């Protein structure tokens, strides 16, 4: 056992909190993305978000996305394609996002779990109030920058190179919310 594999003493350990997996859908129609407004009275009520939600224990990303879109919008989807993954640290833990592009196979989106739905031109997404965890995704969709991908630690501990180490922290969430 060396200094890298030896567990830290309890006094030196940091509580990493919980980690939640969240599947997000980018549903585009006639050049506009579908966004949902969170219900008032909930955490981040009134904020806009992409459809999707938290994965249940043992649930795959694909199954989660399809279930959430059926529950939230009343639609079934087709052509689910992976786009990117992101992580965001907030005071109580991490959110791990997987973002997918998909189309609607059946149904017309309804705000079953949201206050409102809108089809929004990507250039004006920045005018909507989204949770800070979505900032890089919004910047990507609103411009021509590459999709947000988290840099990984290299074997030498340098950022920007791929390895199997943990992802770089995107920054704390100012409001400390814990329910995406």
Please tell me about this protein's structure.
Strands 1, 2, 3, 4, 5, 6 and 7 form a 7-stranded mixed β-sheet that branches. The N terminus and C terminus are likely disordered. A hairpin with a 2-residue loop joins strand 1 and strand 2. Helices cover 12% and strands 32% of the residues. The protein starts with 17 loop residues before the first strand and ends in a 38-residue tail after the last helix. It has 2 helices and 7 strands; from the N terminus they run ββββαβββα. It is globular. The chain has a single domain, classed as Nucleoside Triphosphate Pyrophosphohydrolase (Alpha-Beta Complex), CATH 3.90.79. It is mostly beta strands and 180 residues long.
Question: Stretches where pLDDT falls below 50 for ≥5 residues?
Answer: 1-16, 153-180
CATH topology name: Nucleoside Triphosphate Pyrophosphohydrolase
> What is the oligomer described by this structure?
single chain
CATH homology superfamily name: Nucleoside Triphosphate Pyrophosphohydrolase
Estimate the global geometry from the Cα principal axes: globular
Indicate the CATH architecture. Alpha-Beta Complex
Helical content, roughly? 10-25%
What can be said about this structure in brief?
With 180 residues, this protein is mainly beta.
Please describe the structure with a list of short key phrases separated by commas or semicolons.
disordered N terminus, mainly beta, 2 helices, 180 residues, 32% strand, single chain, seven-stranded mixed sheet, disordered C terminus, Nucleoside Triphosphate Pyrophosphohydrolase
